[in-house]
């Protein structure tokens, strides 16, 4: 039990009784030395460039080095650490808590290499912290806002020669990639902020988020919940231990060629993690010397490689929102749902990681097994990668993979995994043949049907294997339990009002309803309750990357945009079929509380029905998020990456004016 804050007197707020505070000076000597300027600079340079030199000297930079090339380090750092690592002020999450150490390491390296480092930050929220709260309504919209801020910061150093981006988690890292993607001829390098370690005993950060639901069902004691909850984040920095949106985004950054080889998923706070910042700083300087810009790295082939790696890892479905947004920022074509489906049919899943299984290795163990370049070796052998693309090494992906294959780094870190954890690296990252023999299946399927005429998405790998029928097909027919808010759904689950075979239909969770909230609270509760693997979920909201189960999200159109999902009534009979072999699927209304009538008749009846009278945005939906929803709707919506497309928005406004 926490102690109450001591009573605070008005006098202590108004004044501090210390005479030394009154000794105030009005002048200071200023830095010694001379600005290294010339008459030509005074005649030709903008005043901002000249005043910038004065400010740099004022901050203590050596005057004789003021004309060294300038490079910007942007990060999502949050919180405030003391020199000994203890917290002075907490961050929103561990993912950005130690990122400042990477900034410092990179800055020292740049200074050592005769460059002038600048540092700025735009911190980010935590999807885990905001699960089940109104804070989730700001989560996805924040990504666009942060990308705008980061881009503005990049442009606000017009003398900068390149940008180093350092980020870790669910929204800050996609935002950073969107910002860097817009850099064009300017060189940029991304430093993934790494992952947290597993506790020596207890639960990972994904499972521990279900302690409330399990306690409500008498599965765990209060004492157990308190203990595992305390130690789940076993180290103070890094993204969560599972292959959620944070870890998948790190993988995608490296797959795009924006990050150096084998920097994604490094253990936060450890020497190998700090070394990535130093090498990335050197890499940025090398790109500057070679005159290689971001546009030389980010190409349509790089975008496709990123989707290929997403499939091979079995990554979070939230990257369906983020990869198109990165492509849009780079002025490249945005991948379509059809392209995602085609690639997922071609690419085998090769990685056994939380939460997909079958053995559920942690992200740091995936790193030790070889991480992204190890997976790429298998994909190169299978002819599934374009290895001619340029990366931030300044060379081709082929050259990087040739180095990795023979590197001592690869041999030694794989040995660490074997010797420390007793894990065969080839059981974590498998060859296609071994993966097939272990039952790993491709990741993402895009069901359509009379309830999702514009599509939906399910991570088919995450369906409980015991529910898979002959031919690798999942099928489910059950009555609808309809909820307008996540709060109502989770209350029903905890109270036992959701039964074996039900189909939870959670609507008004899309962009216009709740900012396209992430509903891990619902899916995690279902996973931990004994009968609930037999419950399916349909929603116009989205899922956490750690979600598992028969959960279909991104249903389009959303309920508040007139989608038929907003016409479902309590007791309607819904049929879901997912072919995990062919990666095809359907989600249909096939009956009501009185009779079963099939999908074709279901389509006809949905057309005749009016939307439910109780459809409405969440009462706490922020005005900022309402505006975001309108702008992304005009810009291609969910399948377009929830971006701001300036041309589309301006054109729409002009037509209406």
UniProtKB/TrEMBL annotation:
Q: Which UniProt keywords apply?
A: Lyase
* Region (Disordered) residue spans: 600-621
Domain of life where this protein originates: Bacteria
Residue limits of the Dihydroxy-acid/6-phosphogluconate dehydratase C-terminal domain? 448-588
Residues in Dihydroxy-acid/6-phosphogluconate dehydratase N-terminal domain copies: 92-398
**GO molecular function, one example?**
xylonate dehydratase activity
- Segments of skewed composition (Basic and acidic residues): 601-621
Q: SUPFAM superfamilies of this UniProt entry?
A: IlvD/EDD N-terminal domain-like, LeuD/IlvD-like
Please give the Gene3D superfamilies that the UniProt record associates with this protein. Answer: IlvD/EDD C-terminal domain-like
Q: Name one GO cellular component term.
A: cytosol
InterPro entries linked = Dehydratase_YjhG/YagF, Dihydro-acid_dehy_C, DiOHA_6PGluconate_deHydtase_CS, ILV_EDD_C, ILV_EDD_N, IlvD/EDD_N
Which is a Pfam family this sequence falls into?
A: ILVD_EDD_N
Q: What family name appears in the similarity comment?
A: Belongs to the IlvD/Edd family.
By what name is this protein known?
A: Putative YjhG/YagF family dehydratase
Q: Which organism is it from?
A: Silvibacterium bohemicum
**Could you read off the lineage of the organism from its UniProt record?**
Bacteria, Pseudomonadati, Acidobacteriota, Terriglobia, Terriglobales
